[in-house]
Amino acid sequence: MRHLMSPLDFSVEELDQLLDLAADIEKHPSKYAHACDGRKIATLFYEPSTRTRLSFETAMLNLGGSVIGFASASSSSAAKGESVSDTIRMISCYADICAMRHPKEGAPMVAAMKSSIPVINAGDGGHQHPTQTLTDLHTIRSLKGRLGNLTIGLCGDLKFGRTVHSLINALVRYENVKFVFISPDELRIPSYIREDVLNNNHIEYKEVERLEDAMPELDLLYMTRVQKERFFNEEDYVRLKDFYILDKAKMALAREDMLVLHPLPRVNEISVEVDDDPRAAYFKQVQYGVYARMALILTLLDIHVEEGE
Amino acid sequence: MRHLMSPLDFSVEELDQLLDLAADIEKHPSKYAHACDGRKIATLFYEPSTRTRLSFETAMLNLGGSVIGFASASSSSAAKGESVSDTIRMISCYADICAMRHPKEGAPMVAAMKSSIPVINAGDGGHQHPTQTLTDLHTIRSLKGRLGNLTIGLCGDLKFGRTVHSLINALVRYENVKFVFISPDELRIPSYIREDVLNNNHIEYKEVERLEDAMPELDLLYMTRVQKERFFNEEDYVRLKDFYILDKAKMALAREDMLVLHPLPRVNEISVEVDDDPRAAYFKQVQYGVYARMALILTLLDIHVEEGE
Amino acid sequence: MRHLMSPLDFSVEELDQLLDLAADIEKHPSKYAHACDGRKIATLFYEPSTRTRLSFETAMLNLGGSVIGFASASSSSAAKGESVSDTIRMISCYADICAMRHPKEGAPMVAAMKSSIPVINAGDGGHQHPTQTLTDLHTIRSLKGRLGNLTIGLCGDLKFGRTVHSLINALVRYENVKFVFISPDELRIPSYIREDVLNNNHIEYKEVERLEDAMPELDLLYMTRVQKERFFNEEDYVRLKDFYILDKAKMALAREDMLVLHPLPRVNEISVEVDDDPRAAYFKQVQYGVYARMALILTLLDIHVEEGE
Predict the structure, then answer these.
(1) In this complex, do A49 and B74 lie within 8 Å of one another by their Cβ atoms?
(2) pLDDT value, residue B306
(3) Which residues of C touch A116 (CB under 8 A)?
């Protein structure tokens, strides 16, 4: 039995297979509409996340299965002091697969060790959120046709953003990927990523402070939010914040085929005037997330649907 | 694509068609049991309302579809600052139709503008609650056989009750409808309804302060709650409150075929001793609400089930 | 129409039938996979209980049915002052059967009186929790092959534990059942159970203060939690608490075929080192709870599935 804890749990080959499956699901949804008939997913969300929870539930329903679970810790037995290990043994009697979101790093891993059903880490604190990475990869692959040969801008809070770190880790496995990191000095990419992940793998990258400076060369811009409380002082925040807001003017500097991605929810780091730009892909990303999770569920449950129409 | 924002969004003809469909669903439920196979409704309840939420979910399940959503804002991504516009674009990737309850007037309209799936306003603050009106109309039509030629009493808080205002707006479109408004002076029907809706349409109405005075002439009595905090002073409240409590004694003054409706939940404005009176229709109303919502879902999704057994 | 309010609602013969059905479901799950197609259970949980709620939902989904409901009072219309009687009349329009958990003793009984669908008491305050008892009986019967001829140890808080009281009441109906009560003096089994249930039925029992003293003679050990706040003073708690913690050392004193049960969630009253002991049956118990609830739903809905493969 297999779990998904980290975006690197799958080899490049396995990932290729999973994303091929996601693409086939997109093309032939009716072929998969009953693949999980009679199966159940448990969505165990110890902290709320509507987007992620509903994406898993949608994925399972699209496959013909059904859903049990809870949307926040307050309505769970965690309040009665039950351990995650005991909860997953209970859930193993109820469901066929489980997606767990937990504020504590490592909780899904602890669960997986005692589980008799596949456990998917749906976000554990600031640690990992592998299905966001699968979503990002599937979106890029579907819209750009490849995961290598790309110059990728990552903008915003690059220090604390787990989504960004996971995506870098996943993308360095492909050929000829270059990064442009766009962030205030306080929120630069951590040195362990620069050293261990980028330098050791001989990955080309540069760091800039202003989004404008990066725009012209990007194949892809991955936006994230910059929270005010991350800045050292108010002055810096006021001076810098507009550098990290994507608007029409900045989009005018970008290539015709540059994609804009965002893990959502966005607050104001992408101006709504960008939404109608054909290069804005962050809402399509939500749809790709459903296909990626459908493929993941089928893969972990080892369910194979016959090829062909 | 069509949304439902206000009870007047449907013309009288369209409404007739929708209520005919609701009646057919009641008669032949099995004919519709798979009409929405593979479809999903999203119930987005930014404030809790068990009755309305479960009515929508029951309606979709009765049609063979399934449900995703949230029951309160605390477990939604609204807490992370996401706009309703962004949320609906996400939900458009997950579900086929959406019912939204929101404390803010106009929020479902804002959602509808960015949605790629039909949005149903399931109550927006003190503004509109169109599926309650559909429920009321379907109940009246089913039990009285008509929507015109009726003398309708409306009792309770007529000043702030959105349900009452919507029902008046919907009923004035039918022939020979007369109203009797029963309320304390503080909670009289607003002047814009008296002027714009009633006088301009030459609708007959009168206003009385005591339920007893109205009972004998009514074909239908629509009860609503009178909240203590709406009164100007304690003295008035004590003097008046019993006038607006429906009990067996007051029912004795009514016609044999007068119907009692109530949007529920009731607190004490209808005495439980009235519940077994055959004229009490407020629990049947809940059932009619399910049929009305089933018809609405089919209509907005443009799904047609073949006629005949 | 029939409800389930107390574990004694079923006669010994009816219970035998129900547990036979549960056993058949375990053996031939696919035979029952569509027994409740098109039916709905409403899970009305006025206080949270993930284990019990998800067990009912799993049971209904395993039978092909679907689920509506709420997981806590805060998202229910109870907050608006609606009575349980009114709520169940609403729910009767939505669902085919209902499981209700309520902090107030007797609330499910009040609901049952006004309901037009079967109501299952899923726990009412400190009063009854009959499906836990069904679960316990089904677990014992499945793993020991019988409900009579057993020496049963009950350990922990025997004064306030409703689970324990219900189980005693249910087991005294079988032949040659003996009890060993293991608890601190403060938390002894109540005198009305000693007098009315045990002595009047000529049931053999003894009371001991230490788990070690009871272990060697037991066929079955039913563990429950001892809460610190139940003790009269801190000194007693410190002196006694380890007597009621089951660990490997105490298990070494028990018979080879002694079963350990626990209603869960456990906190620390069973050491995790016991989990892998083949005699530990508390996680299997969760699974048996699903079968018992499936059998209960079918029984109350009077649905019969043909015998044979």
Answers:
(1) no
(2) 82
(3) none
Q: What is the pLDDT of residue B145?
A: 97
Q: What is the token pair recorded at B250? A: 């007051």
3-state class (DSSP) for residue A252: coil
Q: Are A284 and A6 in contact (CB under 8 A)?
A: no
Sequence-ordered list of residues with C-beta below 8 angstroms from that of B142, at least 6 positions apart, any chain: B23, B26, B288
The pLDDT value given to residue A156: 93
**Contact indicator for C50, A81 with CB cutoff of 8 Å:** no
Position A243 scores a pLDDT of 85
Alpha-carbon distance values, A216 to A10, A172, A221, B263, C76 (Å): 33, 22, 11, 59, 53
Residues 254-293 of C with CB under 8 A from A: 264-267, 272, 283, 286-287, 289-290
Residue of B52, B135, B224, B299 marked active site: B52
Does an H or E element contain A12, and which? Answer: helix A12-27
Residue B101 is a catalytic residue: yes
CA distances from residue B7 to B10, B15, B147, B265, B307 in whole angstroms, order as listed: 7, 9, 15, 21, 27
R_g of chain A, CA atoms, integer Å: 20
Which one of the listed residues A3, A53, A129, A165 is annotated catalytic? A129
- Give the C-alpha separation, A105 to A126, whole Å: 7
Q: Which residues contact A189 (CB under 8 A, 6 or more apart)?
A: A154, A158, A159, A164, A168, A181, A183, A207
Asked if A70 has any chain C CB less than 8 Å from its own CB, the reply is yes
H-helix or E-strand spanning residue A41? strand A40-45
In contact, A138 and A146? CB cutoff 8 Å:
no
Domains of chain B: 7-128+289-300 (3.40.50.1370), 131-278 (3.40.50.1370)
Predicted confidence (pLDDT) per residue in A259-268, tens digit: 999 999 998 8
Nearest to C89 among B54, B57, B283 (CB): B283
Q: Which two tokens stand for residue A138?
A: 């599937």
Burial class (CB in 10 A: 0-12, 13-18, 19+), A218: buried
How many Å lie between the alpha carbon of B281 and the closest alpha carbon of chain C? 12
* Gyration radius of chain B's alpha carbons: 20
Residue C239 CB partners (closer than 8 Å, separation 6+): none
Distance CA A198, CA A182 (A): 16
Which spans in A126-267 are helix H?
130-144, 162-171, 191-192, 211-214, 234-240, 248-251
Percentage, residues of chain C above pLDDT 70 = 97
Residue C34 token pair: 């569509």
Which DSSP letter does residue A280 get?
A: B
- Of the candidates B2, B27, B34, B51, the residue annotated as catalytic is B51
Residue-wise DSSP of C81-106: T--HHHHHHHHHTT-SEEEEEESSTT
Work out the pLDDT band at A75, boundaries 50, 70, 90.
low
> A271-294: per-residue pLDDT in tens?
999 999 999 999 999 999 999 999
Helix (H, G, I), strand (E, B) or coil at B183: coil
Gap between the Cα atoms of B223 and B183, Å rounded: 10
* CA dist list (Å): B262 to B155, B205, C76, C184: 10, 20, 19, 55
Q: What is the DSSP string of B113-172?
A: HH-SS-EEEEEETTS--HHHHHHHHHHHHHHHS-SSSEEEEEES-TTT-HHHHHHHHHHT
Instruction: Decide if pLDDT at B308 tops 60.
Output: no
The amino acid occupying position A74 is: S
Residues whose CB is less than 8 angstroms from the CB of residue C14 and which lie 6 or more positions away in sequence, other chains included: none
Of the partner residues B51, B58, B283, the one whose CB lies closest to the CB of residue C77 = B51
Closest CA relative to residue B271, chosen from B292, B244, B293, B253: B244
Q: Which residue has the tokens 């739903």?
A: C297
User: pLDDT tens for residues B56-86?
Assistant: 999 999 999 999 999 988 766 566 678 999 9
Q: Where are the beta strands (DSSP E) in A46-199?
A: 66-70, 97-102, 119-124, 150-155, 177-182
